[in-house]
Amino acid sequence: MKLLFWVLVLALFFFVLGFKRGRPERSTPPPTPRSATPAAAAAEPEPERMVDCAECGTHLPVSEALPGRGGHFCCAEHRSRFEARLT
Fold first, then answer.
1. How far lies 29's CA from each of 16, 22, 25, 26, 32, in Å?
2. Where is the composition biased (Low complexity) (predicted)?
3. Number of folded domains in the chain?
4. Residue 65 CB: number of other CB atoms within 10 A?
């Protein structure tokens, strides 16, 4: 029983020693939360609104969408196909 105890103690010791050696040391401080630095929060752009194509339903940013009579479209082909069905 005494031998089992010492084997477990040595195994735990080598496990902890190996665990500490395997982890790299942090040379830089951990990053600060976004709310802690107001200058970084001001420089971060607002998220862009997403719209879906009225023809196929693909989601895309509003700046990349093509406007049409039925809403927003992902490409000119979908816009013309949708508008052809309206007339």
1. 24, 19, 11, 7, 9
2. 34-44
3. 1
4. 22
Q: What is the pTM of this model?
A: 0.49
Residue 68's closest CA among 79, 57, 53, 52?
Answer: 79
Q: Considering the domain boundaries, does residue 13 fall inside one?
A: no
- Tell me, yes or no, whether 19 lies in a domain: no
3-class DSSP state of 41: helix
Which residue segment(s) compose the domain that 85 sits in?
Answer: 48-87
| pLDDT tens per residue across all 87 residues of the chain | 889 999 999 999 988 877 666 666 666 776 766 655 566 666 778 899 999 999 999 999 999 999 999 899 999 999 999 999 987
CA angle 5, 10, 16 (to 5 degrees): 125
CA dihedral 59, 62, 66, 71 (to 10 degrees): 70
The answer to whether residue 76 sits within a structural domain is yes
Q: Which two tokens stand for residue 83?
A: 């508008």
